[in-house]
Structures are given as structure tokens and as C-alpha cells.
TrEMBL record:
Keyword field: Glycogen biosynthesis, Glycosyltransferase, Transferase
Lineage of the species this protein comes from: Bacteria, Pseudomonadati, Pseudomonadota, Alphaproteobacteria, Rhodobacterales
Gene (name only): glgA
Family, as annotated: Belongs to the glycosyltransferase 1 family. Bacterial/plant glycogen synthase subfamily.
Identification of the protein by name: Glycogen synthase
GO cellular component terms, semicolon-separated: cytosol
Record Pfam families: Glyco_transf_5, Glycos_transf_1
InterPro entries for this protein: Glyco_trans_1, GS/SS, Starch_synth_cat_dom
Reactions this protein catalyses: [(1->4)-alpha-D-glucosyl](n) + ADP-alpha-D-glucose = [(1->4)-alpha-D-glucosyl](n+1) + ADP + H(+)
Length: 467
């Protein structure tokens, strides 16, 4: 089985969030199920610098498609300097403003993917797997111009690739694609909407989120597009790369450890306290996240005094909305020795936080899957999460029955509720340093958070599409 994956970011080459981790880990996981996956991504400066010399396999407008391998990945790279060779991030400039030609940049990615899907570079995939709005036009091009069946994965339905209707003239699509079951969306163009209407199968990154997106509250306006195709929607929970995220052999940690040697984690916690000037004693909570409304971090900002008053400490790693960055920076100034903030992102630090903090807070208002709670499980950093999406699917709540049965792995609370989050923090403080806490840590570390089961579901879906 041959599959072409199309993604706007792929770890370890380029990453802004969980999409990159999924696109980077899935090919190796699928190989065990007899699937050969090649991945197409844009030739951003970081990608080109990391890859070095590659083989040209296809000429395209303004550039070429290059072929090669890196870190176990088999890659096609869309090298069009006018579109991708620029300072800033994959989607916007250094100030966080979207590139004004994103419609063109990612339409080109999808057009090229469709050409590769039809074998123009000498390799013929059986299925094409497109990720999020940046690749969502791939199913549209295959629908109207022919090619293998397609899968579209929604990593976050809030991001839809919506542009003015004038963009349609640049897409090289037939006029019939400008319709209610095509890319037209209230006189605009929506790349995600077109993909949802065209793909042969739709997946989301957790079973709960697959149900949630059929409702107005979570569907973000797309629920009526998806509803007639609900029979094509599959919820497949994400996994993580358990080689990259492995507390037994993580070079970023002060001290490695296993479920049987949890006492060794103390060295990692002590190193964090020293790095951030925190006092010793009391549970150490962390946040590793984009600082946005979606992530519910305004609710946490309102609970910081409560957390500190209970004897807890907090380290925040992330960036995002200026008001939230300011709120956490001010909290650190208000509670020196108890609260610390790192505005930005540091991959190694994210590992150290998971390896040394006692708990990770994820109070998201909605969360398609989430990966940080899976990293937390793997590292014995107890997840405290909102009961929504993939968070609800991957964490066993520490209610009385679960604690008595010794199966709890974290704490769940009602989403979009500051008081519920406050209660969960209080419950965590009460459980901290009890045998139940250690049992939760060990349960989490022994949980199956890898890709084996989920990769098997994807492989089965690919085969269904080609049978």
C-alpha cells in the first residue's frame, strides 16, 4: 500500500504545533502495517537548510519538486522560492501576521500534490492523505481532475482557510467547483469546506471530537457540511513518537527514570526549580501551550492566585495572545518564587517540564486530540484536563471509583468553567504526595500512547478505500 501524505509542517523539519508531530510520526508507524508513506511539504528555509542536496523529480510553476530522505522520512519538497523562501513562520511573518498570499501558497501545495498523486514524478500512490486546510484542496483537485481516493484529516476545525471569492479564479478549478458542494462558502472560498465536501473519507483526531464537530457548538459553521457525510467520518486518536518522548532515554533530562524508579524524577524537578528560581515544596504545575482563548488559559490566569494559595507552583511555557502573555508575566511578578513564565517555545524545555513537573494543566475549551496530555502520561506528569475532545478520550478521571480500582491517570473537569478548573487544581493538591498520586503517575507511564493501534486503524481505512 502506497500513500502520499500532504502537510504544511512535519517534525523534525518544521513545527508550530501537533500537526507536525503527527505528520512526522505516522509514516514510521504505518510501515509496520505494510504502508509505504511519502510526505509532501513546502520548502521553507528551515526545511531546505536541513535537507541539503535532493533530487529534482518534477518541474512546477516557479520552481521544482525535490525528492529525498531525512530522519527516516521519505519526502517530496515543494521548492518554490517566491512562495516559501522568506523569513518568519510557515503561515505568517515575524509579527504574527498571516502572509497575504497564503491562498496562493497552499493552493500551489495542493495542485502539486494532485500531480504527484497521478504519478507524474514516477511514483503512484494508492491513497492521498491530506492534513488540515493547508492541504484540503487536494481532495478537490482529485475529485475534478481524477486520481486516487483521498483522506482529509481535521486537526482543528477552527482553522478553515477562508479567503475572498476572487481567489477562485486562481485555483484552476472548473466552474462547477464554485457551488454549495464545492469550495464556495457564503460567497467566499473555504479550502477546508471544499475538502470536506470532496474527500472519500474524513478523519478527526479523536472519537469524541468526531461527534463534537457535528454540533453547532464545536462545528465552527462546518457541521452542516459534514452532516450529510457523517458516515465517512472516523475518529482516530493521535499517538506520539515514544522514541522521541521516552523518559528512560531523554537526553534533555537531568535524570532518566522509569515507572519503577519514579524517585529519580526529583532531580528533574530540582533542576527546574533552580532554573526558574522557584521555591521548594508543594506541587509543581506546568503549562506547555499556545496562549489562546481556545486553550482556556484565561481561566487558568484567573486561578493562579488560587493555585498559589493552595501551596502550588506554576511554570508557563508558550506564546500567543498578548493579553494572556501579559497576564502570566504579571502573575510571575506578583508571585516570585512560585510562578515563572517563559514566553516563546523551546522544544528541549518542553521535555524538561514534562520530566520534572508534577502535573500539566490543559483547560481547553475544545481540543480535537491534544498531544501534551499524552506526553504528560508518558513522563508521569499527571494531566489535569478539560473533559472535551481527545482529552476526554485519553485520560481516566481520578474519581472515587477509578481511584479504588487503581485505573486513574489524571483529573478531568468541566470545560469553559473557571470554578471547575479551580476545583480540579484543589483536588490535585489534595492527592499530591499520596499513594494514589504515585499510582496515577505509574498508570499513565504504562498507558498505550504510541501509534501502533491508531496506525492500524489508518491502514485499515486506506485499504477500505482501495478495495
Amino acid at each position: 500500500m502506497k500513500v502520499l501524505s500532504v502537510a504544511s509542517e512535519v517534525y523534525p523539519l518544521i513545527k508550530t504545533g501537533g500537526l507536525a508531530d503527527v505528520a512526522g510520526a505516522l509514516p514510521a508507524a504505518l510501515a509496520a502495517h505494510g504502508v509505504e508513506m511519502r510526505t509532501l511539504l513546502p520548502g521553507y528555509p528551515k526545511v531546505m537548510a536541513a535537507l541539503g542536496k535532493m533530487k529534482p523529480v518534477l518541474q512546477v510553476d516557479g520552481g521544482q519538486v525535490l525528492f529525498g530522505t531525512h530522519a527516516g522520512l521519505t519526502l517530496y519538497v515543494l521548492d518554490v522560492p517566491t512562495l516559501f523562501d522568506r523569513d518568519g513562520g510557515p503561515y505568517g511573518d515575524a509579527d504574527g501576521q498571516d502572509w497575504d498570499d497564503n491562498a496562493t501558497r497552499f493552493a500551489q501545495l495542493s495542485m502539486v500534490a494532485a500531480r504527484l498523486a497521478r504519478g507524474e514524478a514516477g511514483w503512484q500512490p494508492d491513497v492521498v492523505h491530506a492534513h488540515d486546510w493547508q492541504a484540503a484542496l487536494v481532495p478537490v483537485y482529485l475529485r475534478y481532475a481524477g486520481g486516487p481516493p483521498s483522506v482529509l484529516t481535521i486537526h482543528n476545525i477552527a482553522f478553515q482557510g477562508r479567503f475572498t471569492g476572487e481567489v477562485f479564479g486562481e485555483l484552476d478549478l472548473p466552474q462547477q467547483a464554485w457551488s454549495v458542494d464545492g469550495v464556495e462558502y457564503y460567497n467566499d472560498v473555504s479550502y477546508l469546506k471544499g475538502g470536506l465536501a470532496s474527500a472519500n473519507a474524513i478523519t478527526t483526531v479523536s472519537p469524541t471530537y468526531a461527534r463534537e464537530i457535528l454540533t453547532p457548538h464545536f462545528g465552527m459553521g462546518m457541521q452542516d457540511v459534514i452532516a450529510p457525510r457523517a458516515h465517512l467520518v472516523h475518529g482516530i486518536v493521535n499517538g506520539i513518537d515514544t522514541d522521541v518522548w521516552n523518559p528512560e532515554a531523554d537526553p534533555t533530562l537531568e535524570q532518566s527514570y522509569t515507572p519503577r524508579t519514579l524517585a529519580r524524577r526529583r532531580a528533574n524537578r530540582t533542576a527546574l526549580e533552580a532554573q526558574f528560581g522557584l521555591e521548594q515544596g508543594g506541587p509543581l504545575f506546568c503549562v506547555i501551550s499556545r496562549l489562546t482563548w481556545q486553550k482556556g488559559l484565561d481561566l487558568l490566569a484567573d486561578n493562579i492566585d488560587h493555585l498559589v494559595g493552595l501551596g502550588g507552583k506554576l511554570i508557563v511555557l508558550g506564546s500567543g495572545e498578548p493579553a494572556l502573555e501579559d497576564a502570566f508575566t504579571q502573575a510571575a511578578a506578583r508571585h516570585p518564587g512560585r510562578v515563572a513564565t517563559f514566553i516563546g517555545y523551546d522544544e528541549a524545555l518542553s521535555h524538561r517540564l514534562q520530566g520534572g513537573s508534577d502535573a500539566i494543566l490543559i483547560p481547553s475549551r475544545f481540543e480535537p486530540c491534544g498531544l501534551t496530555q499524552l506526553y504528560g502520561l508518558r513522563y508521569g506528569c499527571v494531566p489535569i484536563v478539560a473533559c472535551t475532545g481527545g482529552l476526554a478520550d485519553t485520560i481516566v478521571d481520578a474519581n472515587g471509583a477509578a481511584l479504588r480500582a487503581n485505573v486513574a491517570t489524571g483529573l478531568l473537569h468541566a470545560p469553559d468553567s473557571g470554578p471547575a478548573l479551580g476545583d480540579a487544581i484543589a483536588d490535585a493538591v489534595a492527592l499530591y504526595q499520596t499513594p494514589a498520586w504515585v499510582k496515577m503517575q505509574r498508570n499513565g507511564m504504562r498507558a498505550d500512547v504510541g501509534w501502533q493501534a491508531s496506525a492500524g486503524e489508518y491502514a485499515a481505512l486506506y485499504r477500505d478505500l482501495t478495495s
